[in-house]
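User: Just a sanity check before I run the rest of the batch. Below are the structure tokens for the first item. I only need the designed sequence back.
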């Protein structure tokens, strides 16, 4: 018989079958392998590989469904539930989901992952034998990354946010490159685990990337012009802003820089949709 610990794989022998499943021999007594946790029918005295963990009543239990992540290994796992008090639960390929505690998530709950987002994490075992998840550190992510080639400049990349800071967010691309998204290169801060697509604005000497989530200038101008047009339309065709308005007022109202505002306003004026007068911008009457 083998001595087993929760959070580990073990080869155990079937001692008997019960209505609920199979009882497996171990030095710590019999361990239940529920029928829902089997991948095939078993016979008495048959040896089977299982993963052992503690159930909700802190009893040793076994499964033949091996987790995709274990102690010492890492994998991308999907968030299946968010609990405001505890943290998030992720699917690791077992019937029991794994908890990643709130202390291992961003301090701002608004940056916690949504259901469907994915986190790169490992499994840990508490001193009481409970399994829990631990998000990979920045060192772990950078150790698995590969250097990005210089021809990626101005190309689009897609990846997942794995770390969020006040000054920006870190991304691991689908190709395995590490990138940084500065706070000035996004309109909204992405959540950890979110899948995002951005444009490479710099390939650094160390092989990491600087990535922007902002649209290209022409796309941005079209989008910003629509924002201004919609705002004016909601106010009856007039707004108390023009190209000499203060940058901070523009930022507060439209969440765009003065340069972007002037480009968008210039586009509307060029299209003959608006005109400016004494600090205000108006729709043209015949438009």
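Assistant: Here's the designed sequence for the first item:
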């Amino acid at each position: 018989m083998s001595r087993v610990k929760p959070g580990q794989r073990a080869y155990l022998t079937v001692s008997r079958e019960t209505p609920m499943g199979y009882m497996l021999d171990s030095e710590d007594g019999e361990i239940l392998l529920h029928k829902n946790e089997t991948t095939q029918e078993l016979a008495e005295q048959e040896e089977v590989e299982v993963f052992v963990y503690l159930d909700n009543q802190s009893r040793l239990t076994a499964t033949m469904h091996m987790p995709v992540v274990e102690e010492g290994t890492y994998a991308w796992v999907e968030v299946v539930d968010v609990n405001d008090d505890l943290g998030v639960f992720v699917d690791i390929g077992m019937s029991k989901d794994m908890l990643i505690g709130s202390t291992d998530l961003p301090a701002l709950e608004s940056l916690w992952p949504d259901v469907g987002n994915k986190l790169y994490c490992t499994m840990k075992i508490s001193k009481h034998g409970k399994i829990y998840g631990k998000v990979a550190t920045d060192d772990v992510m950078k150790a698995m990354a590969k250097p990005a080639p210089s021809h990626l400049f101005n190309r689009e990349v897609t990846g997942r946010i794995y770390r969020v800071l006040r000054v920006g967010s870190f991304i691991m691309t689908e190709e395995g490159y590490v990138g940084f998204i500065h706070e000035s290169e996004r309109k909204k801060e992405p959540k950890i685990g979110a899948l995002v697509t951005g444009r490479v604005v710099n390939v650094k000497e160390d092989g990491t990337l600087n990535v922007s989530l902002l649209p290209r200038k022409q796309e941005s101008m079209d989008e910003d012009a629509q924002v201004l047009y919609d705002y004016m339309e909601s106010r009856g065709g007039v707004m108390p802003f023009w190209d000499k308005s203060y940058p901070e007022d523009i930022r507060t109202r439209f969440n765009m820089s003065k340069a972007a505002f002037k480009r968008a306003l210039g586009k509307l004026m060029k299209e003959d949709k608006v005109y400016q007068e004494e600090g205000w911008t108006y729709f043209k009457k015949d438009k």
